[in-house]
Structure formats: structure tokens, C-alpha cells
Specification:
Layout (H helix, E strand, L loop, with lengths): L7 E13 L17 E13 L3 E12 L5 H11 L15 E14 L7 E11 L3 E13 L2 H4 L19 E16 H4 L1 H4 L9 E12 L3 E10 L10 E10 L2
Antiparallel strand pairs: 1-2, 2-3, 3-4, 4-5, 5-6, 6-7, 7-8, 8-9, 9-10
Length: about 250
């Protein structure tokens, strides 16, 4: 990746937790046709090489699904604090299982000139692992400052568990979407590629995304909104959520 003398390169390390539940969490016995209760605790390491209008991402993720992820305790605590419905089916969650994923993402920037306040970013992505295997692409338009330096951070959108960060001072807003063919996804399929599977994984998945990122000299904040197609064939609704990402450059 370094053979062509890139403009710069950087690493991003993240620790996170994710959870999936059936649509109706008030049932003590979950609907077997819906997605299972599943929690994920993970560590993700990304290495990014940036050239003039092309960025190359390589990422490795390791983690665990199941009770050891702590998702049950976190969700119950948050729902108690905000007075939301108590999730009652966590005793049926996936068993503990080590998960991994290798991911490669390519990012291309299109703009009339480096100083332009507008650009377009094209993503191509492939990932393999027992956590999730997929291939897909995305297209985004942006407006902001110092776009030529920050465009590589858009590659983090393809992980679907991360939102963009800014590599240096500046800001941008973005709007666009991704489409993916997902071969397997343990949070829907269940342990061991289907031993406790739900009714079926929706292989063709689409996302609409919008957000705002602002960066200082050593820190950045990103506010984002995402609308995904339902990952389970037994459901038809879109999944909508927002996220706040804080990043520190060390």
C-alpha cells in the first residue's frame, strides 16, 4: 500500500458495542421468525493510505457475541433510565462466540479543484468473516472546508458500525447512500452460520446517510443519521437511528 509514495497515512482504533433485538422486545419468548437477541463487543483497527484523489482502507475486527458482550446489561440499564420498554427475551440471546472480520475499502474523490467547497466520494467495499461478509458500493456528496484532506474519512461509513471522522481542522456535511450484498451476518443468522438462525437474512441491503462533521486541531465530532433496510426478511420496515461520534487524534 505504500509503494506509490502516498500523501500521508494514519491508523484508527475503535472499541464499541452493538446489539440487535426482535421487533417486539416485550415478549418473554421471542418470535422465532424474527432476528435473535444478540450483543457484540468489538475492537477494530484500520489502516488508511491517502493519495491525491484515492484512499485505501484495510481493517481488522475481533470481538465476541453472546452474554460476555455485556449488551443485555447495557440495554436494560438504558431502558430503565429513559423509562422505555423492558427487554424480556435476553435469556434467548446468541451463545458466546468469537467473531472476526477483514475489510478492504477503496475511496475515490471527484472535484473540479482541491480548494472547491463541494465534492463527490465513491466507495467500494468488500469484507469477509464470521461476523459479516459483504460486497458493496456507495456514493456521497459533500460540502465544507478542506475537503481534499478529509475525504478519506468517508471510508469509515462502509463499516456500518462507524461514522466519519475528520483528519484535520475543518468541517463538512454529507448526504448519500450505500448498497450491499450481505452473504452472512451473525447478528441475524445466529451462531455458527445459522444453527440458531432467524427466518432469513435479507441479502440485498441499502442505507441512506446524512451527517455533519467538525474538527479542531486534535479532536472531532460527527452527528449522523442513517436509515437502513430491515436486515431480516420477516420484517419490511426501515431501521432509523442517529449517532454521535467523538474522535481524538493522539
Amino acid at each position: 500500500m505504500l509503494d506509490d509514495d502516498p500523501t500521508y497515512a494514519y491508523k484508527v482504533h475503535s472499541i464499541g458495542q452493538a446489539m440487535v433485538t426482535p421487533d417486539d422486545i416485550t415478549k418473554e419468548i421471542p418470535d422465532p421468525a424474527d432476528a435473535p437477541y444478540a450483543g457484540l463487543l468489538y475492537w477494530r483497527s484500520s489502516y488508511v493510505v491517502v493519495k491525491d484523489d484515492f484512499a485505501d482502507h484495510v481493517a481488522t475486527l475481533v470481538g465476541i457475541v453472546g452474554p460476555s458482550s455485556g449488551a443485555e446489561e447495557v440495554q436494560k440499564f438504558v431502558h430503565k433510565v429513559v423509562d422505555a420498554d423492558k427487554p424480556r427475551g435476553w435469556e434467548y440471546q446468541l451463545d458466546d462466540e468469537f467473531v472476526w472480520q477483514l475489510q478492504r475499502t477503496a475511496v475515490w474523490r471527484f472535484s473540479t479543484e482541491d480548494s472547491s467547497p463541494f465534492d463527490a466520494v465513491l466507495l467500494a467495499d468488500v469484507a469477509v468473516g464470521n461476523l459479516e461478509s459483504l460486497a458493496g458500493a456507495g456514493l456521497f456528496v459533500r460540502a465544507g472546508s478542506d475537503l481534499a484532506r478529509s475525504y478519506s474519512t468517508m471510508g469509515f461509513l462502509s463499516s456500518r458500525i462507524s461514522t466519519p471522522i475528520a483528519a484535520s481542522e475543518g468541517w463538512y456535511v454529507y448526504l448519500g447512500g450505500t448498497g450491499n450484498y450481505v452473504h452472512n451476518q451473525i447478528l441475524v443468522d445466529g451462531n455458527e452460520f445459522g444453527r440458531t438462525a432467524s427466518k432469513g437474512l435479507e441479502h440485498y441491503q441499502y442505507s441512506l446517510m446524512a451527517g455533519f462533521t467538525y474538527a479542531w486541531q486534535r479532536a472531532s465530532i460527527c452527528l449522523s443519521y442513517q436509515s437502513d433496510t430491515e436486515p431480516n426478511k420477516s420484517q419490511t420496515a426501515r431501521k432509523n437511528f442517529g449517532a454521535i461520534t467523538l474522535a481524538l487524534r493522539i
